Amino acid sequence: MGRFKKRIGLLFLLAVAALYIAIYVVPQLTGFLTATYTAEYGELQIYDDTDMYIVRNETVYTSGVSGTANRLIEEGRLIRGNTTVMEVSGEGGSSDTEKYASILERLGSAAVSTSDFTAEGGGVVSYFADGYEGELTSGTMGSKSYEYYKALSQDDVAELSTGTVAAGDPVYKIIDKSRWYAVAFVPADRTGNYEAGKTVDVEIGDAVISMTVTGVSEEGDLCRLLLETTRYYENYGGTRVAAVRIVTADAAGLIIDNGSIVEKDGVKGVYVKNKKDRYEFTPVNVLITDGTSSVVSDSFYYDSEGNRAATVNPHDDVLKDPESID
């Protein structure tokens, strides 16, 4: 009798353990009890994080005399042609040879010597230079290779002297005020997110700059982007290389897993659980997708013919795997 009770007790424990596994363990492993998820409101961005190389049409001026510099125009100020940018007076100015040697070498004949320190043409004043101002312009940026851009460094950008200068030192530059440009590279499989004429938002530091894509081309396993803008960016005169986020699409709505979306009679939709615990096919209007998730209109949308169509509502239960009810 004692053995029988022990067997009964053991069987009971095994049954409880099996029930526990069936209720708690198996569903977590198979997702059996999570066949649906709640449609929730959210925002989705399509973007690429990369380095951006800033390009400007600009002229670097070098001092024709030695002395002590006195700047008359602030960094970033827009001036007219023939405006006096600075004064150099006194004698015995000494050059920071190590600081300027590489800049002057890269500039070569592109530098303009001045003794009256006026700007030949109007533009934006800047007191930063890296020596690439003469060779990297809006006209040449499309012909430079990825290796060329990869070799550029923000460390090459120097702030020009605010004290004594020697004859031949770079002292200021004037930037074309009409627009500035940029080059960036993203993986080639992202090319489809870009096309000439498209507007993108470039997040650079705390600033968000709207830029227009003017060129898209593939270079090996990379996609080269040419961009331009007329928008103001405070630090653009002294920036050559910057880490940026290029946002190509941004939308708010209900977040839906792409695996939930099917096509029925030419209409995209998902299966939503109704009050009777049955699944109903519900059309959706996809706003943007990142390949994994999509943002869709909530509650209703207007189809291509202008008809109002009911769609997924916030907090609806959406079927994860539509094939499970086929």
Q: Could you report the average pLDDT, rounded to the nearest whole number?
A: 90
How far from one another are the termini?
53 Å
Strand order of the largest sheet: 2-13-16-15-14-17
Structural class: mainly beta
Query: Could you give the order of the helices and strands?
Result: HEEEEEEHEEEHEEEEEEEEEEEEEEEE
Tally of strands? 25
Helix count, per DSSP?
3
Q: Indicate the radius of gyration in whole angstroms.
A: 32 Å
User: Quaternary arrangement of the chains shown?
Assistant: single chain
> What composes the largest sheet?
6 strands, antiparallel, barrel
Q: What percent of residues adopt helix (DSSP H or I)?
A: 10-25%
Shape: elongated
If you had to describe this structure to a student in words, what would you say it looks like?
With 326 residues, the protein is mainly beta. The chain is 14% helix and 43% strand. The protein contains three helices and 25 strands. It has helices at 2-30, 97-107, 146-151; strands at residues 36-38, 40-55, 58-63, 67-71, 78-79, 86-89, 112-114, 123-126, 128-129, 158-159, 164-165, 170-175, 180-187, 199-204, 207-219, 222-229, 241-257, 262-264, 267-273, 279-283, 286-289, 293-296, 300-302, 308-310, 317-319. The protein has a six-stranded antiparallel β-barrel. A five-stranded mixed β-sheet has the order 5-8-12-3-7, covered by helices on one side. It has a three-stranded antiparallel β-sheet with strand order 6-4-11, with no helix packed on it. Strand 19 and strand 20 form a beta hairpin. It is elongated and about 105 Å long. The chain starts with a helix and ends in a 7-residue tail after the last strand. Residues 27-34 have low confidence and may be disordered.
